[in-house]
Design goal:
Elements (H helix, E strand, L loop, with lengths): L1 H22 L4 H5 L11 H5 L5 E2 L6 E5 L10 E15 L5 E13 L6 E13 L2 E14 L3 E13 L8 E6 L16
Parallel strand pairs: 1-8
Antiparallel strand pairs: 2-3, 3-4, 4-7, 5-6, 5-8
Length: 190
């Protein structure tokens, strides 16, 4: 019994010593770095750096496309895209911030739609107050099947000037472009 008690005390002391040794690292990035093929070390500056969030503006989470001449007619809906999530990751080359902005969503085919390729107009924009620092419209192609198809889009080249990262807002969402004027019918004013 005495030997078992000594063994338990030895295990407890060893476990405590290992836990304390792990907590004593003076370089937090070195504590997180794993030596292995293809893995990069994370610097303490990157670990503590600020990565701005990304959001959706009101009205940019859905996009509808209709068969020709069927605008806003539910029976002529070809497909509807919707965004379910937006996220980002940051790197810090040369003191600035480069973001990879990602969008996840799905495309549902409508009564006038079917299998094929659809184009989703996705815009990523970075604003500081009323100043636009970055704006890029992407025509993202998605191969759809009848029913629901999931998609993921990313823009890996969103650059933010050094020192601006806490002052900006980043948005990603569908952008149909400017509203198209309605056609006037001939003889309407006669």
């Amino acid at each position: 019994m005495k030997q078992f008690r000594s063994f338990r005390i030895g295990v407890a002391v060893t476990a405590t010593a290992l836990a304390l040794a792990a907590c004593q690292s003076k370089d937090p990035a070195a504590a997180l770095a794993v030596d292995g093929a293809g893995q990069q070390k994370i610097s303490s500056e990157e670990l503590q750096a600020f990565c701005p969030g990304v959001g959706l503006r009101e009205g940019t989470a859905t996009f509808r496309s209709y068969a020709k001449g069927g605008q806003d007619d539910p029976t002529k809906l070809a497909y509807q895209g919707s965004i379910s999530d937006v996220t980002r990751s940051c790197t810090y080359p040369g003191g600035g911030v480069t973001m990879n902005v990602a969008v996840a969503g799905r495309v549902v085919t409508g009564p006038s739609g079917g299998a094929g390729s659809v184009t989703l107009p996705i815009r990523v924009v970075v604003v500081r107050g009323s100043e636009v620092l970055y704006s890029q419209l992407h025509n993202h192609q998605v191969a759809v099947t009848p029913g629901t198809t999931q998609f993921i889009f990313n823009d890996p080249a969103v650059a933010i000037p050094a020192g601006s990262e806490k002052l900006v807002q980043i948005y990603a969402g569908f952008d149909e472009g400017p509203a198209k004027p309605k056609r006037e019918t001939a003889g309407a004013d006669e």
